[in-house]
Request: fold
Amino acid sequence: ADTDFEQTAFEAQFKAQIADRDTLYVQVLTSDSTGGDLADYTDPTLASSTLRVDETLEPILLAGWHRAWNPEHQTLLLAGWLRSEQSLRGGVVEVPLFANGRNGNVAAAFSLGQREQVYQSQEEWITTEALHLWQIEKNSMVVGLRYQRGELDARNELIALPPRVAPFNPRVRPDAERFQGYVYDTVRPWQSFALTLGLSYDVLQHPVNFRAGPLSEATERTAQASPKVGFVWTPRTNLWLRGAYTRSLGGVSYEQSFRLEPTQVAGFNQAYRSLIAESLAGALSAAEHETWQLAAETRIGDGTFLAVQVEQLHSEAGAPQGIFRGSPFAATATTTPVQLDYEERSLVLSAAQLLGRDWSVFARYRLSESELHRNWLEMGNLAPAFGWPGVGSDVQSGVRLHSLTLGTRFNHPTGWFAGSDAIWFRQSAHTATAPMESAPEESVWQWGVFVGYRFWQRRAEVAVGVENLLDQDYRLHPLGGVGPLARERTAVVRLKGVW
Reply:
């Protein structure tokens, strides 16, 4: 499989005190990347050897303004513009034709053969947001408004389809728009306890399907009120208890990365682009997220840190798919509704120990269980498969994963630093409804080492290292959320600077 990846990125930030109470912030980002099939696969042989993906982020321009009216009142303004281009070529897919039954649902499926797929898209977004912070001794309140608008232009072609498929327009140009208002209030009834209550309301106009061909020009409107609650309690010195419940509504694309709205409640993340692995579900629009999280942390003496955390994450999303539907003799392009339901439960235990001035060691254990249900609503009672994984009236997949991380760090005042991480993964076998998505029994170690040096008053660093030192491949399910790991022994060189 062709899994190479190359990226060139540039970022510049400028901050200036314009007046005693006013600060200006400007950020410029560009990125240009090219690569092969980088999706996560349980079986790496399933990755495409011909797919090429190119992506360009033309200068992303962001400007912010901070006004401190007085010690109690502050206002933040953010405005930005971004433009992106993406192309996929060389990918070969098996194209199904879904045949209608008497009741209108799908009754059977046939193959239109393997076809080359070419996808191109352009996106242009504007984002604006205003936030006001009011803060006194025992109370702080954040109120904000956000508006974002995007113009999308996508084209998805399947080369050399047979004549029995009616002609269709491979290009769509839908718009997207988001209005949002939010308020967060944190009260401190006593010094050791803080309670945060929040509410956001989103109205999102988003494309039905501008990614999975055949594409659709249609858009949908989703509105959601999202409550949030969290607390931080320090019942005694060096002991912290935290908890949070949040709901949120995801966006469409890159615009989700730019916001002033708080991304955390009680120290827990609530700003997810997607909880569902994109290797299985693709990029999603207007995904609904719900989180429950609890944590306890303590410090023993001057150098020992212990923590435990439990969480439950839930997400639902519509993922309409473009399909060809009709009979073996005549078919038309259409869109079929697909509903996704995802749940993840996890337990995390961690410990860290300082060893003198320069050394530290740490350990982290995580147990997670993840389940994904995909329901193709027009498939009736037809069992999943047809030879196409992930297609059916109720397609289920899941995984239970243990992971243990053992690491050490060295940081010297002269600028030298080094580290080592050994990570063990243990995956329990799980039989999915679609056999190709089953999780096999797996146990594997990944070990990496690195050494580096910081200079120019620690504003720059150079480091070299080796990932997957033991040269072990793996078959971990994408639902485990591990992300891409080196499948063979890999040398790493990194140069980073901040000016």
